[in-house]
Amino acid sequence: QRGWWVLALGEPFAGLSFEERDAVRARLCETVALRGIHLPQCLWVWDETDRAQLVLATVPSREMAGLLAERLSVRGLDVRVRRELPEAAAKEPGDTEKGSGTA
User: What is the DSSP code string of the chain?
Assistant: First the structure.
């Protein structure tokens, strides 16, 4: 079953080259780390907002995601909550079951 993402929002990508987009992502990773949040890996989400969006956490309920987002906002991060994409909710490699639901 899909969960909820808490995303850190970075700068817009509109009109930027690949290298410039990488720089935007690097700045967002640095900003997150400076706020005391150290991620084992950087997972990026793309959608119609066309801006850097880094997954900070995946939680099972919208309520939990909202509470976490509030706590992270206090640290000075621009955050949003979004439904986890079906592909991201797929089981571990080698497991034949996939996540289900609509986006």
Answer: ---EEEEEEEEE-TT--HHHHHHHHHHHHHHHHHTT---SS--B---TT-EEEEEEEEES-HHHHHHHHHHHHHTT--EEEEEPPGGGG---TT---------
CB of 72 within 8 A of CB of 7? no
Give residue 22's domain range: 4-89
Is position 14 within any domain?
yes
* Calpha distance 77→31 (Å, rounded): 8
Please compute, for residue 34, the number of CA atoms within 13 A of its CA located in the half-sphere on the CB side. Answer: 8
Return averaged pLDDT per consecutive 10 residues of the chain, 103 residues in all.
94 95 96 94 89 96 98 95 80 37 31
Q: How many domains does the chain have?
A: 1
